[in-house]
Amino acid sequence: MDRFQEQISRRLTFAIISHPDAGKTTITEKLLLFGGAIHVAGAVKSGKTSRQTTSDFMQMEKERGISISTSVMGFEYGDRFINLLDTPGHADFSEDTYRGLSAVDSALIVIDSVKGVEERTRRLCEVSRMRKTPIATFINKLDREGQDPMGLLDQVERELDIHVRPMTWPLGQGRAFKGVYNLVERALYLFQAGEDRRPADVVPITDLDDPMLEASVGASAARKLREDVELITGIYPPFDREDYLSGAATPVFFGSALNNFGVRELLDNLVAFAPSPTAKASAGREISPYEEKLTGFVFKIHANLNPAHRDRIAFLRICSGRFERNRMYLHVRTGKTFRSANPTAFMAQNREIIDEAWAGDIIGLHDTGTFAIGDTVTEGEQVSYRGIPSFAPQIFRVIRNTDPLREKQYNKGLSQLAEEGVVQVLTKLSNVNTRVIGVVGQLQLEVFQSRLEYEYGASCSYDPIDYSIARWFTSGDAKALKAFIDEHHRRILLDSRGAHILMFESEWNMERIIGKNPAITFHSTSETLATALRPDAGE
Ligand code: G4P
Q1: Phi and psi dihedrals of 532, rounded to 5?
Q2: Could you say which of 58, 341, 347, 398 is the most buried, measured as most Cβ atoms within 10 Å of its Cβ?
Q3: Closest residue by Cα to residue 470 from 501, 435, 499
């Protein structure tokens, strides 16, 4: 393998997704510790509150104490280079998280063993499943009295709609938690609370009838483990990497991140089986990461890192080839070429300027307002990557400028923050002067308002609107489409590309309208909309 191939195939780009409080930050920190990217526990956590060192710079975040933005951490582990994408934990920021998922090749789901599968995990998993992202699962907090492990596996299978393949199996829980049995390695890992494990805590037990088992954990735990293992190996087929790579099955690990138990094994396994950069679908063709020419797309823009300057960072996921500093590239949407003198890599808490980066990497490009989410960068080819979805908003407000003297700043803020994906700015079909803000979560409205004020010196107010559900719509039947638009024009919005969105008051009302209009196709994400609008989609 030459250097080019080797560099790409050793990349492992993944995101950790979970419901808030399941343990994502704790796990991230352990992974960074193992990878040598940080040296003290607490560095990630403290990053949540010390503004300047991390990407968590915004006022809102400070006030709320939540991590709004997705950030990236790169580190070496064994033979692989890992790009770990941190996703915001707050439910209201799901759109940003969803987009982050388009930039990774696999995901790790963290589940709290006490709470089981929670709402946010369900939604995020749905998005990953939509694009068949391979998913590994870590069931955390085994040191607490949690739900029955068998029940948890059932829950994952049923609620996340994915087959499970237990890789480890816990012995007891809470105070009675003794460790996990690794079903693949056939070794018993004895639980020790704390940071470091001693070699004596790993007991190889290839045969579960080995009396060493009793000696290590006692007779009743040994008996229970034998029964459990017999049961689960009867129910679940062994782990098959192909099933994992196709997104059909998820390997499941048990442990306790806080006690550093099971996290290293998890990382060792991920490094062994998680995919290298995978081919990505563009509008015309699939693009292999090993293609020589560079392609990539912007999935996130982080604005005003320093409020004194209008600087923004565009996060570029490199999909193929090698990125070089100071080389000319094409910004496909505008047709203009550009060069980046200071592309950055995100290494744990720091940003550093890099000379080159490879397919799989996520880099930051300094931006003065050129890039928008979804933009493609190439060496000249007209490529357009699919799969950076906007989601149909769920909350709508009519937005008004409350300071007419600052109309210019207001408009600038509106368009730049919309480009950044903070909100969707829509206009009413029946009155193009009425602008409607659409968001997935309530908090986005507050963030938008405060950024408008803080960064652009403009102010706005919101008026309620009677709709709570929206769907993009298309039709292959032009006549039916026109009739439909005429009939419903009062409840139609146009998005920034001019695509039609229909708003509904309730689920019931939506079902009724959908039922009555079989010639119209409704879309809940711009991803399916884009597919429907493609010239080859038969419409
Ligand atoms: P998040 O990023 O997914 O939101 O979760 P985070 O890691 O911040 O963890 C949420 C809480 O759960 C933290 O406690 C953390 O210490 C705890 N936790 C994580 N892993 C385990 C585990 O294996 N066992 C137990 N018992 N607890 C765990 P906190 O009190 O909210 O925060 P802190 O004061 O410890 O920072």
Answers
A1: -65, -30
A2: 58
A3: 501
pTM, full prediction:
0.80
User: Probe ligand 1: pick from 17, 26, 66, max atoms within 8 Å of CB?
Assistant: 26
Using the structure block, give the residue that is written with the tokens 């300047």: 52
Does ligand 1 have an atom closer than 6 angstroms to the CB of 91? no
Given the CA of residue 29, which atom of ligand 1 is nearest to it? 7
For residue 510, CA distances in Å to 229, 328, 492, 516, 522 come to 48, 49, 13, 10, 10
SS (H, E, C) 52-94: CCCCCCCHHHHHHCCCCCCEEEEEEECCEEEEEEECCCCHHHH
pLDDT bucket at 38, cuts 50 / 70 / 90: low
Is the pLDDT at 228 greater than 90, yes or no? Answer: yes
pLDDT above 70: percentage of residues in the chain: 84
Residue 64 Ramachandran class (φ > 0 left, ψ -120 to 50 alpha, else beta): alpha
Atom of ligand 1 nearest to the CA of 89: 4
Q: Determine if ligand 1 sits within 6 Å of the CB of residue 137.
A: no
| Phi, psi (rounded to 5 degrees) for 84 | -105, 125
Sort residue 152 into left (φ over 0), alpha (ψ -120 to 50) or beta.
Answer: alpha
Give the phi and the psi of residue 342 in degrees, each rounded to 5.
-140, 60
Residue 480 three-state SS: helix
**For residue 462, which of 448, 480, 482 has the smallest C-alpha distance?**
448
Exposure b/e, 407-431, CB count within 10 A at least 16 = b: eebbebbbebbbbbbbbbbbbbbee
Domains of the chain, each with CATH number or no CATH? 14-72+90-273 (3.40.50.300), 280-378 (3.40.50.300), 395-533 (3.30.70.3280)
Q: Is the CB of 28 under 6 A from ligand 1?
A: no
Q: Whole-angstrom Cα distance, residue 413 to residue 423?
A: 11
C-beta of residue 168 within 8 angstroms of C-beta of residue 177: no
pLDDT at 256: 93
* Tokens 């990557």, residue located: 385
Angle formed by the axes of helices 263-273 and 24-34, to 10°? 70
Residues of the chain with pLDDT > 90, as a percent, come to: 50
How much distance in Å is there from the Cα of 26 to the middle of ligand 1?
Answer: 6
For ligand 1, mutation pick of 17, 18, 21, 142 (most atoms within 8 Å of CB):
21
Q: Read off the tokens for 364.
A: 């930051």
Instruction: Give the sign of the dihedral formed by CA 439, CA 442, CA 448, CA 453.
Output: positive
Span 101-113, pLDDT tens digits: 889 999 999 999 9
Residue type at 275 in one-letter notation: P
How far is it, in rounded angstroms, from Cα 100 to Cα 388?
A: 9
Nearest atom in ligand 1 to the alpha carbon of residue 140 is 23
| Distance (Å, whole) CA 365 – CA 314 | 5
* CB-based contact 201:190 (threshold 8 Å): yes
Q: Residue 193's pLDDT is what?
A: 66
CA distance 385 to 102: 10
Assess whether pLDDT exceeds 50 at residue 68: no
CA atoms of 445 and 384, how far apart (whole Å):
30
